[in-house]
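Worked example 2:
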Amino acid sequence: VQLVESGGGLVQTGGSLRLSCTTSGHTSDDYSIAWFRRVPGKEPEAVICINRDGRTFAAAYANDRVFVYSARSKNTVYLQMDSLRPGDTAVYLCAKKTVPGCNQYRSWYFTESFDSWGQGTQVTVSS
C-alpha cells in the first residue's frame, strides 16, 4: 500500500491550500483516511479524518478552517485548509486505516491506529 501526498507549498497568512492524498496498492475500499501534521521535535498531531461513508471528524483547533473530502473513484482524499496561520506550518501526512470507521477499534487521534503512512508534504505559512 502506498500513500502519496501533494499540494504543499508556501502561502501567506490568511491564504488557502488544498492537499491531496492518493492511495494505491490496496484491493478493498473499506478504509478511512486521516491527516496528521508534524513539526520538528514533536509527535504527529491529528488534524482530521474521513470515514468510508464520508463522515468526518476534526480536531477542535481545526474544526472551522479545515475540511476533508474524498474522490473514491480516484483513490484520493483532499484536505482543504483555509485562513492559514504561521502556526499551521508543518509537514502534513496522510494515514490509512484498514477499517471503514475513523473511530473503529481505536480512536483516530492515535497514530498507532493507522497501518500505512505517506511521506508528507511541507506546508509553510509566512507572516
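The chain has a mean pLDDT of 94. The two ends are 37 Å apart (CA to CA).
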